Amino acid sequence: MATLEQIIDEARALSPSEKQKLRQALDQELGPVGQADLDSKEATFVNRLRQRGLITEVPSRLPDDELRRSYKRVEVKVSQCPRQSSGSVVSGGLFLRQ
């Protein structure tokens, strides 16, 4: 039987299309197990938060596709911080109006 190092070396020698097939096979083999383990850990975490009274419910998740469609970029404009004047506070290099 081949060692893990030998398998990795052989994978490195594959052509790009063979590497893609290998990735698909590994994803298919390992994907559900990894996700099930993650879901189990998350459920345990949520139950502990409920038991301690930190949360009462967990909102349902949006599908990834819906999150991507509704994602909106936020434009941030940066300007120089003016000198401190009355009615304003300079905090951490930011100019805040009160």
Could you please describe the fold and organization of this structure?
This protein is mainly alpha-helical and 98 residues long. The protein has one domain. It has 3 helices and 2 strands, in the order αααββ. Strand 1 and strand 2 form a beta hairpin. The protein is extended, with a radius of gyration of 26 Å.
Lateral strand order in the biggest sheet: 1-2
The total of helices stands at: 3
Structural class: mainly alpha
Strand content: 5-15%
Return the string of H and E elements: HHHEE
Question: Over the alpha carbons, how many angstroms does the gyration radius reach?
Answer: 26 Å
The coarse silhouette is extended
Largest sheet: number of strands, sense, barrel closure? 2 strands, antiparallel
The strand count comes to: 2
Distance between the termini: 71 Å
Average pLDDT taken over every residue: 77
Percent helix: 40-55%
Total individual domains = 1
Uncertain ranges: none
Key descriptive features of the protein:
98 residues, mainly alpha, two-stranded antiparallel sheet, 8% strand
Question: Care to give the gist of this entry?
Answer:
With about 100 residues, the chain is mainly alpha-helical. It has helices at about 5-10, 15-50, 65-70; strands spanning about 90, 95.
